[in-house]
Amino acid sequence: MATTMPIRSQPFPSISERRSSLSSAQGSHRSSNSFSRPRRHSKAPSQHSANIRSPIGSLRSQAQPYPGNDLRQKRSQRLKSQYPLEDSEPHVEYILLASFDIDRGPTMEHQFPGIISPDENLLAELMLPDQTHMRTQDWTIFFLHKNSGEDQEQEEAKKQRQKAKESAKDGDSDHEDEDSDEDDLEGPSLMYVLNLVYTKHDPNEKRGAKTQAMAICTRHSFLHIYKPLLLLALHNYFENPSQHILENLYNSLNAMDLSLMPQLTRLERQVLQANDVRDLFVEKFETMIEQRLEDEAAGLLSHPPASPDRPNQTKYSTPRDTHEFESRIVYNDIPIPVKIPTAPSAETVGDFSLIQLVQTFNTPHVTQPQPLALHAHLTTAGAFTHPIVVLINAMLTQKRIIFLGHQRPSGEVAEAVLAACALASGGVLRGFTKYAFPYTDLSKIDELLNVPGYIAGVTNPAFSYHPEWWDLLIDLPAGRMKISSSIAPAPTTEGSTFFSQQPNLPKETGTDPTGDVAFMDDIMTSIEHRQGEQIIRSKFRSYISKFTRMAARFEETVYGASSLTVLPPTEIEKPNGVNGASRKPSTTTTSAGGAKPLKGHGYVWPTEDAKVRELAATTAKIEGWRSTRSYYAFIQDLATLSQAQIRDPTSPISPQSANANGTTAATTPQPRPYLDISHTLSRLRTLRLTPAEAAPIYLALSSYCTSYTTILELLSHAPLSEAGLFHVSLGLWHENRDVRAATTALLERVKGHPAGRIWFSRLGGFARMGFGRAVGEGQPEGRTSDE
């Protein structure tokens, strides 16, 4: 459960103090000294087992400085790790142990290595949910918020990192511009807590059973990987109730080595998330291994010998699936394999299944449909709107949502809450997880009602009898949803007035003006064809991305401008024509870089009537979203990314680009033309273009996609599950020779791109034949200089 309970932040104890504190095995871990976030323990190389180190030995090894400045200067030009060896942040910061006493109720026994919060009663209640005695074991997840003092310290540290990056920036790689904004897009300042509750029946106990819970507290969203370790540790604690069990587990978890996991840029993460290719970006993992071997050969790193139980195994190996990094945690001399997500999406916490969430509500909706109470924000397709669409609409418009799992494990309810957060985020929006309560109970109702737009999971059916507490009730066992009779109606807004006053508003020609019915049909078809979790998440990401682009066009239509887009000066004047983009070939003068800018941005509709009809049908949902946390967080993320682009002299929105006018010096990086790739590709997919109308699009794509980053941008908007580069390859059959040559040059660069090679290999025989013919016509344009 997300709670505002502050995490205690105080100086870390000395080694002698740590020794004395371990002598107490009874009651909560207390000391007259104060504690802060613990320092990280030494990490064992990923492919080797290692002996568990004591906290004293770990602190001594940590005190030794990482090899000198020469290595740091050498590494600054190389591929970085997401979790470097010299990183001081621990994987797991605290381990908690609570038990249920028949006389005192939930009681906190231990907090290791320090006191995370003085409010032990609340922590113990969170760790021991209702009805735990009815199940042998149960998993729960809850969140803890940092206090304001730590937030200020983190903000100051972020500013210092930004200043250091700006002063050290040498401009030798377009990867640096991507990396410079990674720390600015941090998620919510939460500590994630994974909790295991175990009940052991014992006739010698007062109540016939002994119930205890163990939890780990981490900043990492992939906390589900620690489940096997918690099971083993809690089992050991039942046999030997000693705080040394917590110490041993703490050392084992923080010895996990993730230093060979490469740091991916924002675009690389988007491409990896949207495609299920198992060897995507495998070259980055190979580079990390090569760098590690070079460091070891130079004697810059010390590492234990190879594991004696597997002497013939390769020391380091690339992962079988680059979506997951394979490592091991050695606990009690037992190596336990774990898989860590390489590119987790925003608002993705733990392990859950969107497919399972969709199927839970789709089956009752299809077999026995029941009408819902109408609400403009929620039932955008009428009383029989698909439940998943209702859930997404409720999340986007910041409604109060309750997931009820009567007589279900609390872990199952928590997974549904976390899945809903990822569903509405789509990896595009944020602001959901921070206000989520994966599990709560009636004792926390006052705190819950003080949170606007909460998402909570409960098992007590008493919540269903109080519609004033929630706006949308989701019954997990029944697969049904209920809109509260006390929900506030959607207010009349300027947008709804605007479309209601349109004299020539096109009449609905079908029963699906929003496209939600077709979208859910596509989702169910993909599930039936077993396309996998990765593809389903990619489709929901595209759905949320489409919604944000429609909202931007809505704001431009109704209010004259939008905060959801960052445009260069050339796009300020709205051109006439369908979708705000001219249907005639661009006649803009050639820029200094030799490319012809192609005007047009935003979402593309096949006709103007379709645009007005869908915007009118989605007006209430868009207006409801415009006053939510996720809306303002999205604007903030856009502003952060635009600041990074402004610092890039080759960006079309930078001041250097705006003032270039073809007169920049030869030594100044030439600005690339502005191009909304999503808009451009959508025109190729959606509109029936004549050869003269399509020609500027192919030429603009070829002129824009000339570097590693811009080709990645192209791939991020052309996932393989949505035909990949098929529509781009149609330019190989264009009637204009220059267009065919430009398309051939573009595909040549894609073919030589580390990730683009996969997109090129997925082109069909028709495109390959056209590519071979175009190559035979003449020498294509030169490749990019950075390949």
From TrEMBL:
Biased composition (Acidic residues): 173-186
Domain of life (superkingdom): Eukaryota
Pfam name, any one: SPA
Biased composition (Low complexity): 21-32, 658-668
InterPro entries: Actin_polarity_regulatory, Afi1_N, Tripartite_DENN
Domain UDENN: 93-612
Composition bias, Basic and acidic residues: 155-172
PANTHER family: ARF3-INTERACTING PROTEIN 1
Protein's name according to its UniProt entry: UDENN domain-containing protein
Record lineage: Eukaryota, Fungi, Dikarya, Ascomycota, Pezizomycotina
